[in-house]
Amino acid sequence: MSKNVLLLETVADDALQMLKEASDMNILTGYDEASLQSQIQNNRIDAIITRGKGQVRDSLMQQLPELKVISRCGVGLDNIDVSHATKRGIKVVNAPNSNADTIAEHTIALLLMLQRNLYNAVTMVKENRWADRGTYIGDETHGKTLGIIGMGNIGKKVAKIATALGMNVVYWSSNKENVPYTFLEFDVLLKTSDSISLHLPLTSKTENLIDVSALSKMKPTALVINTARGGIIDQNELFNALKAKKIAGFAADVLALEPPDKNDPLVPLENVLITAHLGSLTKTTYTKMCTMTVENTLAILRDEAPMANCIFNREKLGIG
Ligand SMILES: O=C(O)C(=O)COP(=O)(O)O
After folding, report:
1. What angle do CA 156, 162, 168 make, to 5 degrees?
2. 3-98+284-301 and 100-274: same fold?
3. CATH number for region 100-274
4. Distance CA 9, CA 91 (A)
5. Which stretches make up the D-isomer specific 2-hydroxyacid dehydrogenase NAD-binding domain (predicted)?
6. Domain residue ranges of the chain, discontinuous segments joined by +
7. How far is the C-alpha of 146 from the C-alpha of 4, rounded, in Å?
8. Residue 287: how many CB atoms within 10 A of its CB?
9. Atom of ligand 1 nearest to the CA of 76
């Protein structure tokens, strides 16, 4: 009997093609609430494939008694209730390490743009204001201290590039890692870093980790970079700190609310630079994240072996 795979969001063309070519699979799409409800009511669902927006909460899982696997084309699992999926014996699959290089590149690009004031400098030329070039002189990263919060796959890549730029890398992580960088206590890192870059998942432990107290410990010249998840920072307090110049600048690819409210006061600040959650959205990485995920989903549905480490809740499910 064919298996039904429900897509909550679009996936890369190559990944969709793989699904289309799988003669033992039916593709169903539930890109909006109405179509999702209709698919659920009319079909048995064996697998869900989503990216970062599709919410897979327990209320959805309880309507899908045959669901065997929830797959995330990407890494972050904050849109999936992993704990309830595990309780229900559902495998949660992601694409570990698939986007570390491209997100590390994006992080360093944001850091350089902010540090060198390039985002303002480029606009200045487009506005025919060459003569204003002294206004946006910025500073170099060489010789500065970069504090990395979260030394996982992405943190390690950022550290490597930053080292090549001549930065002094220090880090804080929930576990000390076997890396050639100095581990600092959280507060010490906040106090000593010239720029601080976040590389943590969003969980109940990391939500609002960068709160008013953390912000108050940073240098007035500090730059904060966030390519992880918006919810790790208390955005109101961040706005207050930036507006009052208690820290110098903020560059991010993520916000607590995406897209932001059109009146969000953070976005237009002069010392703020934001891209629209496209850190992993390069042609190569988008395709890799999606094809890897589809391949593993198909393997699981066919009772074949998926790639090692792709089942996030493997240990909790007791499957080694
Ligand atoms: O893999 C992740 O966690 C990402 O943030 C990638 O971006 P996405 O959420 O898929 O748009």
Report:
1. 100
2. yes
3. 3.40.50.720
4. 19
5. 108-279
6. 3-98+284-301, 100-274
7. 47
8. 17
9. 3
Assigned CATH class of 3-98+284-301: alpha beta
CA-based nearest residue to 36, from 59, 62, 6: 6
Mutate to test the pocket of ligand 1, among 102, 253, 280 (most ligand atoms within 8 A of CB): 280
Q: Point out the ligand 1 atom lying closest to the alpha carbon of residue 94.
A: 1
Pocket test for ligand 1, best of 277, 285, 286 (most atoms within 8 A of CB): 277
- pTM score, two decimals? 0.95
Residue 142: active-site member: no
Can you tell me the distance from the alpha carbon of 68 to that of 234, in angstroms, rounded to the nearest whole number? 36
Terminal Cα distance for the chain, rounded: 28
Ligand 1: nearest atom to the Cα of 75:
1
**Candidates 66, 140, 258, 270; catalytic one:** 258
Ligand 1: distance of its center to the CA of 251 in Å?
17
Q: What is the pLDDT of residues 104-152, one digit of tens each?
A: 999 999 999 999 999 999 999 999 999 999 999 899 999 999 999 999 9
**d(C-alpha 291, C-alpha 289), whole Å:** 6
Whether residue 253 has pLDDT greater than 80: yes
Q: What is the pLDDT of residue 320?
A: 66
Residue 28 to residues 6, 16, 18, 70, 245: CA-CA distances in angstroms?
A: 5, 11, 14, 14, 50
Pocket lined around ligand 1, Cβ cut-off 6 Å: 51-52, 74-76, 99, 277, 280
277 catalytically annotated: yes
pLDDT tens profile 2-36: 999 999 999 999 999 999 999 999 999 999 999 99
Unique residue bearing structure tokens 């042609």: 283
Contacts of residue 303, defined as CB under 8 A and 6 or more positions apart, other chains included, come to none
Kindly name the residue from 51, 106, 229, 237 that is annotated as catalytic. Answer: 229
